Amino acid sequence: MSDFDENVINEFRTNGGKVGGPFEGAPMMLLTTTGAKSGQVRTKPVVYTRDGDRFVIIASKAGAPTNPDWFHNLVANPEVILEVGDERFPARATVTTGEERRRLYEAQAARMPGFAEYAQKTTREIPVVVLDRLA
């Protein structure tokens, strides 16, 4: 894990889900996945939006040409752990497609304009994932 991610995770857990720096004021969660190849548990801070009761995350990797590692992990192992605020709970990840994907991506880009820029920086279709709480 990078020092940056480790610092964000520690700040998140210390402050009940609130972080400063470049993520100050953004809705942030911690996503814990199981490695697709290694089987190791990995935690990453990610921003999210809501769609009803579902959480929505976008595998933008800031517009890089490849998907983030966490995306490959949750495709292989869709049962994940989420930390939102001071809550920790299991969830199931589903990759969206078609109109649903477009609607959710546009909704997040409207709230966080950086996501519109990420889509312009890459030729890949940036995946959109919904997370349904299991407990």
Which oligomeric state applies? single chain
> Strand pairing plus helix content: what structural class?
alpha+beta
Helix content: 25-40%
Shape: globular
How many β-strand stretches? 7
Query: How much is the average pLDDT?
Result: 95
Low-confidence stretches: none
The number of helical runs is 4
Beta-strand residue percentage? 25-35%
| N- to C-terminal distance | 28 Å
Report strand order across the widest sheet.
2-1-5-6-7-4-3
* Biggest sheet features: 7 strands, antiparallel
How are the SSEs placed, and which strands pair?
Blueprint: H1 3-14, E1 28-34, E2 41-47, E3 49-51, E4 54-58, H2 69-76, E5 79-84, E6 87-95, H3 98-111, H4 114-121, E7 128-133
Antiparallel strand pairs: 1-2, 1-5, 3-4, 4-7, 5-6, 6-7
Question: Can you put this structure into words, describing what you see?
Answer:
It is a single chain. The protein has 135 residues and is an alpha+beta fold. The chain is 31% helix and 32% strand. The chain is built from 4 helices and 7 strands. The chain has helices spanning 3-14, 69-76, 98-111, 114-121, and strands at residues 28-34, 41-47, 49-51, 54-58, 79-84, 87-95, 128-133. A 7-stranded antiparallel sheet has the order 2-1-5-6-7-4-3, with helices on both faces. A hairpin with a 2-residue loop joins strand 5 (79-84) and strand 6. The radius of gyration is 14 Å and the shape is globular. The model has no long low-confidence stretch (mean pLDDT 95).
